[in-house]
């Protein structure tokens, strides 16, 4: 009798296991083949900050080099904001904007306090590097690279 009971128990267990496998097999896939495939990022995701293009002149950023973001950053992650006044232009053009992303908490103060909405969060979710310096970003260079790839 014990042998029959064990066989029935084993068969039931096998069917339950197969049921779980079949259910998973026909369920929609929830994983992606990263890095060949990527998920779309939520619009609220906060990557490193980036400079926003001027609508009238998309090759130029909106930044007027006022320094407000640099002064307000609580962790002093904005290391340098340099610019120059070009002939015929009313405001300065940013030439260098160094962000130390290793200390940035993505708090958003710089984005919120910029008087001309020149900053936004990027959707760069997988920055990688071997050295601390790899996470020092020049947002002007990043802007130019982004423009070229658009
Ligand atoms: S998000 Fe916050 S911590 Fe990061 S640079 Fe802006 S103000 Fe500084
Ligand atoms: S607050 Fe805005 S306009 Fe002023 S330096 Fe920062 S990014 Fe540029």
Describe this structure in words.
The protein has four helices and five strands. Strand 2 and strand 3 form a beta hairpin. The chain folds into two domains: about 30 residues; about 100 residues, Alpha-Beta Plaits (2-Layer Sandwich). The longest helix is centred in the first third of the chain and has 25 residues. By secondary structure, the protein is of the alpha+beta class. A three-stranded antiparallel sheet has the order 2-3-5. It has a two-stranded antiparallel sheet with strand order 1-4. The structure holds iron/sulfur cluster (2 copies).
List keywords for this structure.
2 domains; Alpha-Beta Plaits; alpha+beta; single chain; binds iron/sulfur cluster; 150 residues; three-stranded antiparallel sheet; elongated
């Amino acid at each position: 009798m014990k042998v029959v009971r064990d066989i029935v128990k084993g068969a039931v267990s096998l069917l339950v296991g197969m049921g779980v496998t079949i259910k998973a097999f026909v369920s929609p896939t929830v994983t992606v083949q990263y890095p060949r495939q990527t998920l779309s990022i939520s619009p609220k995701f906060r990557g490193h900050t980036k400079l926003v293009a001027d609508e009238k002149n998309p090759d130029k950023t909106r930044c007027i080099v006022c320094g407000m973001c640099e002064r307000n950053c609580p962790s002093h992650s904005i290391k340098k904001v340099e610019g120059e006044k070009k002939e015929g232009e009313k405001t300065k053009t940013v030439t260098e904007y160094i962000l130390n992303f290793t200390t940035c908490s993505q708090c958003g103060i710089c984005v919120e306090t910029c008087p001309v909405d020149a900053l936004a969060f990027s959707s760069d979710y997988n920055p990688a590097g071997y050295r601390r310096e790899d996470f020092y970003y020049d947002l002007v260079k990043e802007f130019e690279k982004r423009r070229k790839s658009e």
